[in-house]
Amino acid sequence: MRMDGYVNDEHYGGGSWDEIHWSFGEMPAHASRGTTLRAGDILASGPVGTGCIQELSGHRPYLAPGDSVRIEIQHLGAIIARITEREDHHHGA
Predict the structure, then answer these.
(1) Is the dihedral of CA 15, 44, 61, 11 positive or negative?
(2) Which of the 8 DSSP states describes residue 62?
(3) CA distances from 86 to 19, 48, 60, 65, 83 (A)
(4) Residues of the chain with pLDDT > 70: what percent?
(5) pLDDT one-digit tens code per residue, 3-26
(6) What is the DSSP track for 13-54?
(7) Measured between alpha carbons, how far is 48 from 5 in angstroms, rounded to an integer?
(8) Domain ranges of the chain
(9) What confidence category does residue 28 fall into, taking pLDDT thresholds of 50, 70 and 90?
(10) CA dihedral for 63, 10, 71, 52, sign (positive or negative)
(11) Alpha-carbon gap, residue 36 to 62, rounded angstroms
């Protein structure tokens, strides 16, 4: 299956299912090493092919508030997330 990633509708990269390094069964085990996974946490398959923004940092800007990220997987659909400003959580005494 083909997978592609977009930022603000610009194609950032993609690849094929056969390039995945971790099985979906291995992802939670790997992601939970040294931390606790909680309801609402999102686990993804990681970058596919040329989909890692860290690796593209010399050619693409990092994500910023207001950016829209879309991941599409052939035959399965797409998920879209908007990057937001960090919330300050101040607790009064």
Answers:
(1) positive
(2) P
(3) 33, 27, 22, 9, 9
(4) 78
(5) 888 999 998 888 887 777 777 788
(6) EEEEGGG-SS-TTHHHHHHTTTS---TT--------TT--TT
(7) 9
(8) 2-82
(9) confident
(10) negative
(11) 26
Identify the residue whose tokens are 């946490």.
Answer: 41
Q: pTM of the entire structure?
A: 0.62
Q: Which residues pair with 3 in a beta bridge?
A: 15, 73
Q: Both tokens of residue 50?
A: 């040329």
Q: Please report where in the chains the tokens 């960090």 appear, as a residue.
A: 86
Residue type at 30 in one-letter notation? H
The answer to whether the CB of 43 falls within 8 A of the CB of 20 is no
